[in-house]
Design goal:
Distance between the termini: 27 Å
Number of helices: 15
Strand order of the largest sheet: 1-2
Largest sheet: 2 strands, antiparallel
Structural class: mainly alpha
Low-confidence stretches: 1-24, 342-349
Number of strands: 2
Oligomer: single chain
Mean pLDDT: 85
Amino acid sequence: MSATTAPSTQRPPHGNGPGPRPRGPRTLLASIGGQNIGLIGALVVVIAVFGSLDPNFLGWDNIRVIGEAATIAGLLAVVQTVVVICGGLDISVGSQAGLASVVSAMVFTATGSSAPLGIGAALLTGAAVGLVNGLVIIHGRVNPTIATLAGLAAYKGLAQLLSDGRAQGYVLGDPVFVFLSRGRIAGLPTMVWILAVVAAAVHILLTYTDIGRNIYALGGNDTAARLAGINLNKYLISAYALTGMVAALAGVLLTARTGSGQPVSGSEGLELQSITAAALGGCALKGGKGTIGGTLLAVALLGALQNGLTVQGINTFWQNVAQGLLLVAAVVIQQRRNRGRGRAVGLPA
């Protein structure tokens, strides 16, 4: 395969990268991904079941609660999608959010209640730890799963060291943090708008730019992408730096919701939620495939399911079991779809 023909072999299908866009009613289907029709059906079933059990489930107030609760996990799922499309994985996003939460509150307190400095310091911290992840993976030649698993422990430990294991500061007296946590724009919570803006920006990046095409090419076939002249190291490092920054934004929103910097509480388990949403949304864990629309659909499903179980008084431990089963189901479906492209572990060739 020559370098001049490599890019065309890696051009993603409609909805997975730049190129001619389908017209008419098929546009929405392409952006979400045809493989997610079953996910839409599951969301409808969840809404119907919990709506019949509790009429308030479909009330506007509860819908806003679901949106607010899903925002932080949704932000992490959006950037997890980018990393997975690149062929990587980031298990440390929850710890990054916790570290950023602590930094935002501590800098806010240390600077005489300056919200811009606290938020800025958190975002810089997130970009820095994301950059570290990327550098370790590229220049240390460490598997992304192992590298970010190490980051999961390291960033959580750093957050606990900085905070002495306790919640830090109090930010709900500040109008900026109050607006982030309780503000409304056109009737919708500010946090939901933040998720919408970030998701739209990443969707445009992936779908309508050469950068997006190269990201899909990198995850689909890194050898062909390299022959096409794509700087793989630059894209991977940038993807992890972006992930760190958005994870830090999620940490800032966590601080705003809880009123203080949280080293662990509120951020633990977010990495599993983000990976589950990306997988459920149609991302191929081997890379090269995925859409932001599908991921957001999965985030909505997980948020509605978690809220419905909570309203019905189901033990939170069972919620964790349900989330784990959904992740396994998503991977099994992927493997079934890809039959003939590889051999399942433990099965004869």
